[in-house]
Amino acid sequence: xxxxxxxxxxxxxxxxxxxxxxYIGSHTAVELVKSGYEPVIIDDxxxxxxxxxKNLEEVIGHKLAFxxxxxxxxxILEQIASEHTLQGVIHFAAFKAVGESTQLPLKYYQxxxxxxxxxLQFMKDHAIKDLVFSSSCTVYGQPDVLPVTEATPRKDAxxxxxxxxxxxxxxLVDFIKSKPGNRVISLRYFNPVGAHPxxxxxxxxxxxxxxxxxxxxxxxxxxxxxxTVFGDDYDTTDGSCVRDxxxxxxxxxxxxxxxxxxxxxxxxxxxxxxVGTGKGNTVLEVIKTFxxxxxxxxxxxxxxxxxxxxxxxxxxxxxxxxxxDWHPSYSLEDSMRDSxxxxxxxx
Length: 347
Ligand code: UD1
Description:
Layout: H1 3-9, E1 13-18, H2 23-34, E2 37-43, H3 50-60, E3 65-68, H4 74-83, E4 86-91, H5 98-103, H6 105-125, E5 130-136, H7 160-177, E6 183-189, E7 191-193, H8 212-220, E8 227-230, E9 242-243, E10 245-247, H9 248-262, E11 269-275, E12 281-282, H10 283-294, E13 300-303, H11 318-323, H12 332-346
Parallel strand pairs: 1-2, 1-4, 2-3, 4-5, 5-6, 6-11, 7-10, 8-13
Antiparallel strand pairs: 9-12
Helix pairs in contact: 2-3, 2-9, 6-7, 8-12, 10-12
Uridine-diphosphate-N-acetylglucosamine is lined by residues 96, 98, 136, 138, 158-159, 162, 191, 210-212, 215, 227-230, 241, 243, 283, 306, 309-310.
């Protein structure tokens, strides 16, 4: 980075964002800047590309400190620490394809767990106190009681991916118990959807999307012939699965709130928060909302159930509402509109 840029940023609260060129990371970078933080991004671009950074800089309005690399590489972390005074870290970088994780479990354990261990040691050695960790509602499995609170027991993971999130949460608990001086929050994301309202950044699935909404938008765009709804014979209002779909901008905002809250806590603090809307929607409701809001007809059919799918899950958000004073401000309609607008820019 040139010395001019470095001088401007030196006085700001710098936050290292691992996976900052990814879907949730890039949107969080925008929200951080709005709140007076300066993101420093490390991303190996394995699930993103340089264009995302260019667009992100357009949204933010200035150049970003970016390091292309893997956060399993302590060397690059040391380089970053030598060039920036970091106040905290948000750790997004991880693999997240559930199906692939069943085929290549070691890839997931090595990357998702290995990187957290390296990052924690790095933070401890440099007295970088605060960490927000990307966890997932996958840790609840299929819950017995809905909605799920943070006190809902975690279940055995359905996939190696899910297990990495569970193990990472356990590592964080043990780390904080050892009194390293750090303060950590795990955010358990429900289903992130939508895109930045400018349509300059959004979700960028590489290959065939496994997740619902990118498949919906690619089908509407004619990239995929047809969407298959995985089952309509579940015990739900219309037979399709239920999820808590949260707009990525709201999710991004939760990270900013979490960082601010960490700043007020004593050393050796750990807590977890659900980040969802508190409302469940079925897959068919998502499709109908997408069609209605965008005035687009979607080619879809009902197919067999997908192995390993949770039938229904949505969040009890009382804790994050009350403790972090975080409240979602985007609706499912907003999400479907923004996802479609983003897809159209990709066509
Ligand atoms: C899954 C993981 C979640 C992880 C996320 C990231 C589980 C239980 N959850 O979320 O932890 O963070 O992936 O990748 O493994 N659907 C269709 N047709 C499609 C695609 C999806 O009907 O073409 C349905 C699914 O059956 C599901 C819903 O849409 O009911 C949401 O699926 P998806 O977007 O893949 O997310 P999750 O499975 O909830």
